[in-house]
Amino acid sequence: MSKNVRTSQVDHLYEAILCLKDKSECYAFFEDICTVKEIETISQRYEVAKMLRENRTYIDIAEATGASTATISRVNRSLNYGCDGYDMVFKRLDEEKKDE
């Protein structure tokens, strides 16, 4: 994460997110704090990242998610040169599936 994003306000937000206990609480919190469009945009980026990790083509991803090629490219850049946040989450979710 870039240093300019690390602020006490962002810390407070992340602390609030970390105290959520289940998907129902996530829905309640995020529907209060975000617009529907913001939630849709974030979830779209996550889906794009998953599909990129599955080696799907930009055209396939754009058709399935409605994301622009610019958004797909931006997410791809994060996957390749970012802070490895997506990969950390994907790995943990895969581990959870294996444990089930």
Describe what this molecule looks like in 3D.
The protein is mainly α and 100 residues long. The protein contains 6 helices and no strands. The termini are far apart. The relative contact order is 0.08. The model has no long low-confidence stretch (mean pLDDT 95).
**How much is the average pLDDT?**
95
Principal-axes geometry comes out as globular
Please bin the fraction of helical residues: over 70%
Overall domain count: 2
Span of the ends, CA to CA? 32 Å
Task: Assign the CATH superfamily of the largest domain.
Answer: TrpR-like
Provide the structure class. Answer: mainly alpha
Tell me what the CATH architecture of the largest domain is. Answer: Orthogonal Bundle
Q: Can you describe this structure in just a few lines?
A:
The protein is an all-alpha fold and 100 residues long.
Question: Keywords for this structure?
Answer:
single chain; 100 residues; mainly alpha; Trp Operon Repressor, Chain A; 2 domains; 76% helix
List the helices and strands and how they pair.
Blueprint: H1 8-18, H2 23-33, H3 36-53, H4 58-65, H5 69-81, H6 85-99
Helix pairs in contact: 3-4, 3-5
